[in-house]
Structure formats: structure tokens, C-alpha cells
Amino acid sequence: MSIELRGVTKRYGRGTAPLVIHGIDFTVPGGSLTTILGPSGCGKTTVLRMIAGLESPSGGQVLIEGRDVTLLSPAERNVSMVFQSYALFPHMSVLDNVRYGLDVSGVASAEAIRRAQAAMDGVGLAGFDARLPSELSGGQQQRVALARALVLQPRVLLFDEPLSNLDARLRRSMRDEIRALQQRLQLTVAYVTHDQSEALAVSDQIIVMEAGRIAQQGTPRSLYEQPASEFVARFMGEAVLFDGQATADGLVRLGSLHWQPRRPVQAGPVRVAVRPEAWRLARHDDGGLAGAVQKCAYLGGNQELTIDTALGAVFVIWPEPMPEWTHGQPVWLSLAGHGVSVLAR
After folding, report:
1. Which of 32, 50, 291, 307 lies in the 20 to 30 Å Cα band around 175?
2. Edge-to-edge order in the sheet of strand 340-344
3. DSSP states of 249-260 as a string?
4. Number of structural domains the chain divides into
5. 292, 307 in Cβ contact below 8 A?
6. Residue 20 has what pLDDT?
7. What span, in angstroms and rounded, lies between the C-alpha atoms of 95 and 153?
8. How deeply is 211 buried, as exposed, middle or buried, from its count of CB atoms within 10 A (0-12, 13-18, 19+)?
9. Is 244 within the bounds of a domain?
């Protein structure tokens, strides 16, 4: 079941009110997971709510499996949504929370219980029937919300920042579970988050939004390795941007460094986005960019360094705990063949 938005706009207030969503177009292919990614206030949750029918577009169309659902209510769309807050009924047991939508839909009690327990089994909640939400961990509450959505057997499943209330380790575990469940059941999923690593880990497609517009859309790899703008380069993982020069012979020069980009670049001024893992360090002069260590943080499996250079401050992730770098230590930097993007200026 695909989702398609055609020229969708949204404004709050009368016709003279400013648009918060500016005529966006995208498709979520059936059986895939598309993440709508962006900073707070960019409009990503508004887009999700328009797919769900909780908000009405000011213009354009929302289609599900080719059917125009723009004017239909949420109940007429066969769409389920998992909210950031989980929105569980605190006075109801886990089983009653999960079967609630079936009860409201008029499903017979025995069938509702059977389907609810099957949905709970599918998300690892077997035996939790009588528990109250207050007796569950955050991850378990998230599973209840997921089971409640799945029990309705929706054509489309929507997630609004589902992992933001969980700690880092549990977020990793739950994102993997959501992805595995989506792939196993071949669900069509639209997933909203502001967490780039979360988006990279679970998505078939990512749509990056900026100020109510689509800045870029594509696969996780294409957005990370080929950002179309400075905004996308900075938002899709950490990147520091520098002024560079593309030469007529196809090279790109950045200070004393030069290299052959993977894709042809028109000669002239360019912006070079360098991710922290792209830098290589040497303790002796090997013809690279000279610098001095200003900060170093030991993080167990790697180190984070800030290095003062003629280009300015450079942020480096050194992928090993050794050697130990010290403040003021001279280093020479060069660039690896990945993690560097050249943007037109």
C-alpha cells in the first residue's frame, strides 16, 4: 500500500496566513519504510498528521494505494499511528489497551482478545495481559503502543518520534525491532524523527525537510555521501564545511590538500563538506595539512579531537583508542576516499 503526497500545502489560519508546508511531493512505496527527517519546527510531524487524517491539507492531495483520501477521516483510511507519548490508557490493562481499537470497531470480544494476544506475542509481550502501563518500563510501553497499532491490521503504519523517550541503548534495540517487524510483515511505514542515526539505521528512503520544504530525498547512503546542499550535509551527520577550489584538470584543492573527487566538478569555487571520520592523522610531516591538537576526548573505542589548522578548527573522529593525543601536539592531516562531499558555491 503506497502513500503519495501531491503538491500538499498547509497553513494555520485564513488564506493570508503563512504556509508551514510548501507544496511537497513524495511517495512511500508499498512495503517500504520512509523516514521524514528534520530539525524541530520543520513541519515533519504536520506532514505525518496529514497522512493520518488528523490534519487537513490547505491544498494538494494525499493518496493511499492510488485512492484520494484527502477529505476522508482517520477511521476511513485504515491507518494506525504510534505517538511519541504512547498515549496509553493508564487505568486499562495491557490487553485492554491493545484490544481497545477492536472493541470500538465492534469486533466480538473473543475475537478481539485472540487478535490482541497475537499482536502482543508478536512484539514480545506474551504474559503481560493483566499489567497496567504504570507497571511497565518505557520500552514495554512502546511495545504496547505498537501492538495496539498492529492489531488493527492497518494498510499504513505511522510513527511520530517513537523512540525519543527511551535511553540510548533501548533506542537501538527498539529501532532494530521496528525495522525487523516492518520487513517481516511488509508494512508500509512513514516514520518521523530528528535523529539522523535512527533514520540511517531503519530507512529505505529518507526525506529531509527544512522550513516546510523538502531539502532532499533518497536512500540513506545517497543522502550521507552525496548531500545536495550545505543544510543536508550538516544535518545528515556531522560535517564541517570549507571553501575550496575546483581546478580545470578535475582536482579539488582545499588549502594545501588536493584530490580527485569521485564525481566531476565544474571548475571554480566550491564548498567542501568533510565528515569527521574522513580525516587521517600522522604524527610526522608527510606533506599533509599541518595542525595542532587543541582538544581530545577519549570515548573508549575511539577518540574525538579538535585540531587547529590554517583552514580553521577541524573536528576528527580517530577510530582507535591509541595512540594517545595530547594538547598542543603537532599533527598532519590528509583526507580518505570517503566522507568528503563537494558542493557548488
Report:
1. 50
2. 257-259, 252-254, 240-246, 268-274, 340-344
3. TS-EEETTEEE-
4. 2
5. yes
6. 94
7. 16
8. middle
9. yes
Give the H/E segment covering residue 27: strand 19-28
The parent domain of residue 332 ranges over 238-344
Tell me the CA distances in angstroms from 151 to 31, 32, 75, 112, 133, one per residue in order. Answer: 18, 19, 14, 9, 18
Burial of 138 from C-beta contacts in 10 A (0-12 / 13-18 / 19+): middle
Q: How far apart are CA 41 and CA 194, in angstroms?
A: 10
pLDDT digits (tens, 9 = 90+) for 115-158: 999 888 888 888 899 999 999 888 888 889 888 888 888 878 99
Domain membership of residue 231 (yes or no) is no
> Does the pLDDT value for residue 84 go beyond 80?
no
Q: Residue 168: pLDDT band by 50, 70, 90 thresholds?
A: confident
Helices (H), 187-265: 196-202, 220-225, 230-235
Whether residue 217 sits in one domain with residue 245: no
Q: Is residue 153 part of a domain?
A: yes
Residue 14, beta-bridge partner list: none
Distances (CA, A) of 298 to 305, 306, 315, 322: 9, 12, 14, 10
Are residues 141 and 8 part of one domain?
yes
**Domain finish residue from 170, 197, 225:** 225
CATH number at 66 reads 3.40.50.300
Structure-block grid coordinates of residue 115: 487478535
Which of 225, 259, 280 lies at the terminal end of a domain, its last residue? Answer: 225
Q: Using DSSP bridges, classify how beta strands 330-335 and 279-282 pair: parallel, antiparallel or unpaired.
A: antiparallel
Distance separating alpha carbons of residues 136 and 126, to the nearest angstrom: 13
Q: What are phi and psi of 86, to 5 degrees?
A: 75, -35
